[in-house]
Amino acid sequence: MDANHRNPPAGGISIHAVDIARGVPAAGLCVRLFRLADGRTEIASGRCSDGGLLQHPVAEGANVLRGLYEVEFDIAQYYRDAGIDIPDPAFLEVVVYRFGIDRVGEHFHLPMKFTPWGFSLFRGGA
């Protein structure tokens, strides 16, 4: 068995965020992705594109290994930047979602839907 069959290429982690309170992609939402192994290592970060996608090489499998991960979404700052009146502190300041990857060769798509008062996050497109 060659190395490619023992260690298939990583399928990647993609993130797509939608502000369902306003019915728009979450352009500008700050997102950070961490691998939880020997501490907490940031492997991706950035702002979502106009279409609500985090555009980063991690979506193609860069630095994705078997293990636990956390993704952080700066929900309150997103609404403040948009000029939306929310409480201070906000009900949702930063949403943290912990998930695991067992089958590295599969793609893990994380659709994030949110309002200032709640969110839904799940594995999509499996």
Strand proportion, as a percent range, falls in 35-45%
Uncertain regions spanning at least 5 consecutive residues: 1-5
The CATH superfamily is Transthyretin/hydroxyisourate hydrolase domain
Characterize the main sheet: 4 strands, mixed
Shape: elongated
Query: Count of helical segments?
Result: 2
Quick structural overview:
The protein has 126 residues and is mostly beta strands. It contains two helices and eight strands; from the N terminus they run αβββββαβββ. The chain starts with a helix and ends in a 5-residue tail after the last strand.
Report on this structure.
The structure is a single chain. With 126 residues, the chain is mostly beta strands. The chain has one domain: Transthyretin/hydroxyisourate hydrolase domain (Immunoglobulin-like). 9% of the residues lie in helices and 39% in strands. The protein has two helices and eight strands. The protein has helices at residues 3-6, 75-81, and strands at 13-19, 24-25, 30-36, 41-47, 67-73, 95-101, 108-115, 118-121. It has a four-stranded mixed β-sheet, with no helix packed on it. Strand 1 and strand 2 (24-25) form a beta hairpin. The longest helix is centred in the middle third of the chain and has 7 residues, at 75-81. The radius of gyration is 15 Å and the shape is elongated. The relative contact order is 0.25. Mean pLDDT is 93; it is low at 1-5.
